[in-house]
Amino acid sequence: MFPLPCRAVTEFPHTCIGCSLRFWTGPLPISPAHALPAKRRGKVTPKERRDVTCRGAADAGSTAAFTAGLRTASLRGKLRPSPAPASPRQPQAPVAAAGAVPGRRCSAQRAASSSSGRRAPAPPSPFPPLPPSAPGWARPRQPGCGVLPCRAPCAMDWQVLTRELSLYLENQVRVGFFGSGVGLSLVLGFGVAYACYYLNSIAKKPQLVASNDRFCRFLEEYCPVVTETYYPTIWCWEGRVQTLLRPFITSRPQVQYRNELIKTADGGQISLDWFDNNDSSYYPDANTRPTVLLLPGLTGTSKESYILHMIHQSETLGYRCVVFNNRGIAGEELLTPRTYCAANTEDLETVIHHVHSLHPSAPFMAAGVSMGGMLLLNYLGKTGRDTPLMAAAIFSAGWNVFESIESLEKPLNWLLFNYYLTTCLQSSISRHRQILEKLFDMDLVMKARTIREFDKQFTSVMFGYRSIDDYYEDASPCRKLKSVGIPVLCLNSVDDVFSPGHAIPVETAKQNANVALVLTSCGGHIGFLEGIWPRKCTYMDRVFKQFVQAVFEHGNKIFSI
Fold first, then answer.
1. Catalytic entry in 82, 370, 476, 521
2. Do residues 322 and 273 touch, judged by C-beta distance below 8 A?
3. Catalytic residue among 271, 496, 499, 521, which?
4. pLDDT tens-digit readout, 359-401
5. DSSP secondary structure, 443-491, as one string
6. Catalytic pick from 14, 51, 525, 541?
7. Annotated catalytic residue 370
8. pLDDT digits (tens, 9 = 90+) for 325-347
């Protein structure tokens, strides 16, 4: 913005536009080379006419003066110098300025032919007169001058004017926005408002749902993270964002596996990746070293970042881990035309009994993630107390498959997750096309664009279900939760698009003393990012570490539940 109206323009409204501009931007250098030579007076080029034109004032008090000056300076593209003063001895009529348009009179001629013959006095100025020594002082209009009243018509270098105006405006913006504190105030105000919203609506304590007071007290004492406020990453707390960013943000600890292939009753094979942790200082005896069985998600393997983090947490505690890879997705060949699903627990039963038989004296528990958690819950609901597992931890399980599929088929969720997972499923079976095409129309399976279409054409047919609805009903863990017979801790986020909050069986969990639900307001699906840069540890990792340690070291306090 410009300062107050130009004093010279207000007091002397007919001064040269270039001279008046000094009152707006300060003294500007005017090259004398731009003064019009005598032989060219009255013949002004367009460039010289532009040189004497300046920007109008934003203030209403000087707008009229600038407009009048611009109109006068551009009248028919000609500049008129001030005429020579009349001789005092012999009065003469006012002479038109050089270059005047024939048939028109200058202002002095019009004043001379008026009824009074004298010029009307100018209205008094509201400002005191400026001294001639003041910067930017302009001489008042002389009687009898031409259209352009300044005695010496001048023009300004347009490049110099542009540069000076640019520097002036940049300085004004810099001082006005930052120097005055306006920008800082806006930033601080927005930051305070966002911080208040984050602390009031985003960062909350998780909801702990458990019907057994003894189990609750056990968790509060030995797994206090379930009662602490969960602070999601402040710049990516939304569920979809956490789900998408977790694989790229979190680190991937280096883990050396020992692979083992075990045979199944139907002639197939299962790949197990062992982390023996032989360097454990807490449990140097391998026979009594606690063992954790890990079950990855739908298309996950032992290389998933969340599995690697769980193994890293177990390593610090001195435990041994073994990862159960579903058939055909860890690089091994399919020996039979059968893969896996969330409802069939035969392979999981085989793995659990195999691991327990190798280390019968070692404490043994399991942890499942996403579909691995669904499979583990279905197994526990089927076996009840008849299992070698001491306890189990479930993360981001889909409780009701119907609700999960419906949520994933919404347009945005289909674009972000459903289509990608479908292509991953197709890729996992395309390697085994030769053995699978004996029983399935693989061309039709590869045309599926949703998980529902894939399950309808492939999964439900493979495991003998009459319809896709029968398979989804059998795969939903919420129907078997009442039959779980060992302590189970389940972590879910209510903004998980894979397991919507309204589908979490809160009331059913309250009817089983062995089940405890931990529900966070944010976290997404296997996200649970926290901290400014959540690379090394997530909230899910901390829950896993504390609960596993509590079971192995203080499990006798909950075994009698």
1. 370
2. yes
3. 496
4. 999 999 999 999 999 999 999 999 999 999 999 999 999 999 9
5. HHHTT--SHHHHIIIIIHHHTT-SSHHHHHHHH-GGGTGGG--S-EEEE
6. 525
7. yes
8. 999 999 899 999 999 999 999 99
